[in-house]
Amino acid sequence: MKLLKVNKKTGVASATLYYTLVVLVPIAILALTYYTESLIPPLALLLLSKWQVVAVRPRYWFVNLVANAVDIIVGVSHVLFVYLAIPNLVLQICLTLGYIVWLTIVKPRSSRLFVTAQGLTAIFVGVSALSFVAAEITQPAYVLLMFVIGYTATRHILTTYDEKMSKQISGFWGLVMAEMGWIFYWWLFAYPLISGARLELAQGAIIATLLSFVSLKAYDSYYAHGKMRSSDVAAPLFFALVVIIVILLFFNQISVNEPL
């Protein structure tokens, strides 16, 4: 969702103003997090920047929320990551630059490649964020949020396909993500990125993203050829299985929650 809608006819000045405002939001989030060392002010700013979701009649709020869910998931996750990166200012700046790239380059694109990247990014950062708040929420809430991430990301990706059953397919993958969430809630492992920072690389996010990518390749093959061709799926499936097996067998040292 755009912070301000820019008409191309308004020229360079309006486009410059739009991108300036877009860039100022991540910078303001960084500043608020750095100086307040609190999650609430930057989160409030992020949600305020998505005001157009409710700038319509109430009956359209849910539709707008679903349509903008991927962007909201990425934004809320970013705020949490910047907070967890305290006191490492360099890491916070890197995260801010990454979010600026998302807002100015990745999010505005509508090609299948970029829309797929948007959906998979939402899965990765969304599951990562959930991993770090799992100790603060109940398991049913965690599972429900995993469903929401899977459903909205899949539906977002399927907008680039002429798929009549997009809701059903999205619901199915949402249920698969919910099942993963039921396991991940008690099997949360993460790998440190930088010494001294609480922000870590969540194992569940890697697994969920890899499996989502393989499933997408299988769907894309079926959509294009009327059947799932092994030549289209074999390579991504093999890569995903190798990565998952390696991290499960050799990299389960650090837990971000209490495992069973």
Could you characterize what this model shows?
This protein is an all-alpha fold and 260 residues long. It has ten helices and two strands. The chain has helices spanning 11-36, 40-48, 61-67, 69-84, 89-106, 112-133, 139-158, 166-184, 203-225, 230-250, and strands at 190-192, 200-202. Strands 1-2 form a two-stranded antiparallel sheet. A hairpin with a 7-residue loop joins β1 and β2 (200-202). α7 runs antiparallel to α8 (166-184). The radius of gyration is 19 Å and the shape is globular. It starts with 10 loop residues before the first helix and ends in a 10-residue tail after the last helix. The model is unreliable at 1-6 (pLDDT under 50).
What shape does the CA trace take?
globular
Discrete helix count: 10
Order of helices and strands: HHHHHHHHEEHH
- Helix percent band: 55-70%
**Number of DSSP strand runs:** 2
Low-confidence stretches: 1-6
Intertermini distance: 40 Å
Rg (CA only) = 19 Å
Widest beta sheet: strand line-up: 1-2
Sheet with most strands: 2 strands, antiparallel
Strand content: under 5%
* Oligomeric assembly: single chain
Helical/strand content category:
mainly alpha
What would the average pLDDT be, to the nearest integer?
Answer: 89
